[in-house]
Amino acid sequence: MESGGLDGTAETPHTAGTGNETLSTQSPSSEFSLGVLVLLAFLMVLLALVTILGNILVILAFIMDRNLRHRSNYFFLNLAISDFAVGAFCMPLYIPYSLTGKWYLGRGICKLWLVMDYLLCTASVFNIVLISYDRFLSVTKAVSYRAQQGITSNPVVKMVAIWVFAFLLYCPAILFWEHVAGHSVVAADQCYAEFFDNWYFLLCASTLEFFVPLLSVAYFNMHIFHDIQRRQRHGSTQDCEPPRSSSLSWRFCFLPRPGVFSVEGSREFRCIKPLCASPAILQETKKSSICSYFLREKYAAAGPGEDVCSSPSGSNTA
After folding, report:
1. Number of structural domains, the chain?
2. Dihedrals φ, ψ of 141, to 5°?
3. Has residue 121 been placed in a domain?
4. Is the separation of the CB atoms in 129 and 94 below 8 Å?
5. Residue 244 sits in the same domain as residue 208
6. Smallest Cα–Cα separation from 160: which of 57, 237, 78?
7. Which of 65, 75, 268, 312 is deepest in the core (most CB within 10 A)?
8. CB 115 within 8 A of CB 163
9. Where a domain ends, among 206, 233, 260?
10. Where among 233, 250, 279 does a domain terminate?
11. Could you report the per-residue pLDDT of 205-242, keeping only the tens digit for each?
12. CB contact at 8 A, 124 and 85
């Protein structure tokens, strides 16, 4: 009984040692000369510095310029934070490990590096999907999208959700896999995830981390491309959706066709005016509705006092 336990214990290090010997014989330090290793190290360090400096510029620009603090740029900030952490923490620890083929920093730092590496890379992928989805909404639902520009709680919730989902995908497995399995398959001088050889887990995780984001980004961008093409063919018309929290009873408003002028020489707007219940609501609609705001911003050159939703004949239908 005791000898069997000793035999079973001896087999695991032997297997791990065999795999470790294979990794060691295939490490770059044995395959490449010293000059090639120095060149590779220089290029890796340069790539890490470019990653750090580039993302620092993005973060500083967002902090210092208040005009950049609108909805879509919050997602770019989230992406810059994750990429900055990759360049500042993950890449410096990976450079000596990739060049020597051995891990010298201990098991605790190895676990921390793996958690950060998988978390940050997965968060970057999810941030790209979120940016594509945000662009998708800005094109397909432009007016309602613009109405929510000043609301910061919505993007912040999505940013936090990105990090939570990214953590749940890999990090619990990295931290607890060996405790559930009862033993570790990673050698003392190596650092990789315990599930590295488990293709069931890798297939499921890769589907959620790679294939689903790939199909989502492809769908969003193809939809944006076809929507822009359709607008170019049929003219730049777009629905103004009513806000859900408003009591105004207007229905639709379409963007005017550019380059159209009336007989008197003033710009003509093809727009269905808001249908309001009372003159007071009509006045409020002219000042603050999504439709009026969007048209005033788009056609500020229409002249003072001119109604942005004037009829094709130039008369006011209000």
Report:
1. 2
2. -135, 65
3. yes
4. no
5. no
6. 78
7. 75
8. no
9. 233
10. 233
11. 999 999 999 999 999 999 999 888 888 887 644 444 44
12. no
Q: Which two tokens stand for residue 125?
A: 């992928």
* In-domain check, residue 1: no
Structural domain boundaries, residue 98:
7-233
Tokens of 57: 């510029």
Q: What's the token pair of residue 302?
A: 């229409």
E strand or H helix at 77, and its extent?
helix 71-85
Cα–Cα distance for residue pair 89/83, rounded to 1 Å: 10
Asked whether residue 255 falls in the same domain as residue 178, the answer is: no
Same domain? For 217 and 292 the reply is: no
Residue 261 phi/psi, 5-degree rounding, is -130, 150
- Reported pTM: 0.64
What phi and psi values does residue 267 have, to the nearest 5 degrees?
-70, 135
Tell me how far apart the terminal alpha carbons of the chain are, to the nearest angstrom.
95
* Comparison of pLDDT for 266 and 306, the residue scoring more: 306
State the Cα torsion 195-129-93-35 to the nearest 10°: 110
Return d(Cα 127, Cα 119) in angstroms, integer. 12
Q: Tens digits of per-residue pLDDT, 146-199? A: 766 656 567 888 999 999 999 999 999 999 999 888 888 899 899 999 998 899
Q: Are residues 99 and 86 in the same domain?
A: yes
Non-local CB neighbours of 69 within 8 Å, separated by 6+ positions: 62, 152
Within a domain: 117: yes
> How far is CA 151 from each of CA 129, 131, 132, 280, 300, rounded to the nearest angstrom?
21, 17, 19, 27, 25
Characterise 101 by phi-psi region: left (phi > 0), alpha (psi -120 to 50), beta (else).
Answer: left
Is 2 within a domain?
no
Q: What tokens does 82 get? A: 């994750």
Half-sphere exposure of 50 (CA within 13 A, CB side): 6
Between CA 29 and CA 40 the distance in angstroms is 11
Across the chain, what does the average pLDDT equal? Answer: 74
